[in-house]
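Annex B. Sample input.
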Amino acid sequence: MAELYKGKPVADALNAKMAADVTALKEKGITPTLAILRVGERDDDLSYERGAMKRCESVGVAVKNVVLPADVDPDTFFKALDDLNNDPAVHGILMFRPLPKQLDGEKARKMLNPAKDVDGCTDGSLAGVFTNTELGFPPCTAQAAMEILDFYGVECKGKRAAVIGRSLVVGRPAGMMLLHKNATPTICHTRTVDMPSVIREADIVIVCAGQMEAIGKEYFREGQVVIDVGIHYSDEKQKLVGDVKFDEAEPIVAAISPVPGGVGSVTTSVLVSHVVEAAKRISQ
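Annex B, continued. Sample output.
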């Protein structure tokens, strides 16, 4: 049976460090503050917002909520974003996307100040991932996968790694972050030829295919570490599942992150840690 790389202990460790950093910042007169910019009342946005606010409260990070109606006009929205960009009391901005059709989402993404882009969606943040510099912040889910590897002591140096998925949100950033850890990553996608054989060669596998239980036993061999980023609700099973067929992979591999209770439970802590880090950068 595989070792389960659960997210809660990882999140707990991040939260403890954050709480100490927040205390030190407040002693300097700085209260790390996250601004949440939300348009409309999408259920998934509201759920993530509640989780982020709860995590912020638990470590002493302040939250400023900017909520606009779903039919907000572009001028009002972009003024609100500009105000947050220029507010020195706001250290991080979480801008929920996708935006309604009347708003230019690409313009908004490019307008967001990378120094406050705690969700890692701007070109500046993505450039920082590729150059391994403190320009913006990595996408939270990709970093959450790295935090799990670090917490459980997975040595990446010299290891073969494979990422299933090439999105800018997880796949490509995760590939670069593995490279910075001196792994040798391969990014697989829908045009990869004989993907199972490629994945079986890897020591570390990060699965972010975005397809429910698409990755089965034919992809795995003994000794692998598997991080499953996917999360879906299965009507058939009446529960949350990942991109990996857990019941098939778990008896084979050395370690695997469960769904739920794996990467997702770390992501919010990573988001809040970016707010704290943004506040630390301006305090130095």
